[in-house]
Design a protein that fits this description.
Number of strands: 13
Mean pLDDT: 92
Number of domains: 1
Radius of gyration: 17 Å
Helix content: 25-40%
Structural class: alpha/beta
Oligomer: single chain
Low-confidence stretches: none
Number of helices: 8
Distance between the termini: 23 Å
Strand order of the largest sheet: 1-2-3-4-5-6-9-12
């Protein structure tokens, strides 16, 4: 897929990687707009193609009392407002077949969560909307097996596909990124590295997922160095008090410095 197929995306001739970034979940309009404004300013300054990310609901929670959202339509309208206000494309994840058509009315890219990427009906529902589809690699799947998920989208006459590596389970409470998988998946589709979810530490006894945000820069640099097409980063101005995935999000204050370093790495690679 050529990323120019994503509506409203900018800076596609810069030679940079593209980035999908934003909060884990939409907690309200003010926070979404605040984060989006900062990200748009940074990515415009550095000429990075940018897609705003926000989940309109969180269905894959460890505990029933975990935050799941502020209301589907309310959150989707906030994502739509971000897009219209800043002129940027948006992505959100879906969890049911019914979510596909509903979310497609508001966003540009539909994302299939890693736990659900083998669910044929869900992948087909996303593909038949005609939207760009981002397939997250299951934590339990090999890079090679993602070609079958990609083929499901192609079989629906939709050529606009991305795949995203978000780490592979390593024991019960850790993830590991096998960077050999990136060029493998690039044989099937445009490939993204989900930096922050790759640093999750799931299955904690408290029922709240942990993480290693101190290693975000390490994973991101390695991904750019091996030539990944795009990166995915969840970020928040107050990760400690975020309502979802705060343990592995990048603090918004560190986003520009990280992007600056990654752009320098990409520029070096582009000279070879």
């Amino acid at each position: 897929m050529n990323i120019q197929q994503i509506p409203q995306i900018k800076h596609t001739d810069s030679g940079n990687f593209f980035v999908l970034a934003g909060p884990c979940a939409i907690e309200g309009e003010d926070m979404a707009m605040r984060i989006a404004e900062k990200l748009v300013g940074i990515t415009d300054k550095l000429a990075i193609p940018f897609v705003f990310k926000g989940s309109f609901k969180k269905a894959n929670r460890s505990r029933i009392d975990s935050f799941s959202g502020i209301g589907d339509e309310k959150a989707l309208k906030i994502i739509e407002k971000v897009s219209k206000s800043f002129g940027v494309p948006t992505v959100t994840d879906i969890h049911t077949n019914e979510d596909a058509a509903m979310a497609a009315a508001y966003v540009d890219v539909l994302q299939i969560p890693a736990f659900l990427v083998r669910q044929t009906d869900l992948v087909v529902a996303a593909a038949t909307t005609g939207k760009v589809v981002n397939l997250k690699k299951g934590q339990f799947m090999s890079p090679e097996s993602m070609k079958h998920a990609v083929q499901k989208v192609l079989d629906c006459n939709n050529q606009n596909i991305m795949v995203t590596d978000r780490g592979t389970m390593f024991g019960y409470q850790d993830m590991i990124v096998d960077f050999r998988g990136i060029p493998t998946m690039q044989e099937y589709a445009t490939t993204v590295l989900d930096v922050t979810h790759s640093l999750q530490q799931p299955n904690q006894t408290a029922g709240v997922t942990g993480g290693r945000p101190d290693r975000i820069e390490t994973i991101a640099k390695a991904g750019i160095a091996v030539g990944v097409d795009g990166i995915f980063i969840e970020t928040h101005f107050d990760p400690a008090n975020a309502k979802s995935d705060g343990a592995n999000m990048l603090h918004l204050d560190y986003f520009e410095a990280l992007m600056t370093k990654l752009v320098a790495i990409r520029q070096t690679i582009n000279t070879f």
